[in-house]
Design brief:
This protein is mainly alpha-helical and 387 residues long. It contains 14 helices and four strands. It starts with a helix and ends in a 20-residue tail after the last helix.
Length: 387
Amino acid sequence: MRLYLLVMLVAAAVTFMLTSVMRRLSLEWHVLTPVRERDVHSTPVPRLGGVAMSLGFAVALVVASQLPYFEPVYSTRTPWMVLIGVLAITALGLVDDVWDLDWTAKLAGQVLVAVFLAYQGVQLVTFPIFGITIGSSTLSLGVTIFVFVAMMNAVNFVDGLDGLATGVVAIGATAFFIYSYMLTRTSGALTYASTASLIIAVLLGICLGFLPHNFHPGTIFMGDSGALSLGTITACATIIVTGQLDPLVLGEPQLLTSLLPIVLPIIILAIPITDMTLAVIRRLRAGKSPFHADRKHIHHRLLDIGHSHTGVVLLLYLWTALVTFPTVALLVYPPKWVLLATAPAFIFTLFLTVNLLPGLGRIGLACIGKRPDRPASPVGEEDKLDA
């Protein structure tokens, strides 16, 4: 465990320092997020934070490769293939951040990276529900590509407020690391060093290193280079830890916890998918393209009806933790105990939700487009829904 913490701290420290460097370079190179009518931020903000995160990820993996404890992990080339995939998706996001790629070109690039990782062994072999085996190599490849692309864009969609995506992924990564580490111990492995645990520990490190720069008021955005890389890393760990392991070998108590890799993507995907669905319906009803940009997304509406920027972010952190950590607890405790412990936390979080929404009664007005007059919020993460 101590060496996992060491690698995580290396990732955090390198990311923290490089983020300052990338912010200065973004300003010098004028790679800034412009202020558009639909955006939350009010001044142009540097947007190359994702490059620092990916470099932090790379440095941490290189450091881990030099530690004898992780020798079993590096006995295969999987960690290096994951690193290549992350650097490739970062390069794609960087090009989009600088030159604003067409959405079809960006999607094609995401698919290419997913295909590369799948052919390098990061591929679903079993569905994590009762060990159902995917019927063919073609189906396995297709499902793997879907998981990669979905998770890449899930993080991109939730990247709507300062610190939101970074914090949500960090909380999910913390729970996922606990799950992966305990799963390794439960399965009777000869060593507690595992590829999935290492990747998730480094993911948590780069999120913690970037968050001080990105939390409201953020001084730099991660951009597509960061959002896509976070989604790719999460997808890699998800596939490695569960998509290639039959949960039946773990016994009955572990069947419930084998669902965690499904729950975590849903946690990240729930808000953006809901937002995207509402946006498509709204735009089609208005006779516009589903990709027509507007300022009626969920985070816009929540800000317009009285939320504070920080309040919204912290509230979503709480809900993320409320779902992830009790699920991980199922690996150790009976479901009824977890339910009893979770119920008060759920009630408390629900109470905070209601009290942090002073404009809850005006949601109806917001939904029909009548926003209360209020000044635009200060610097906020860029709106990437329509990217």
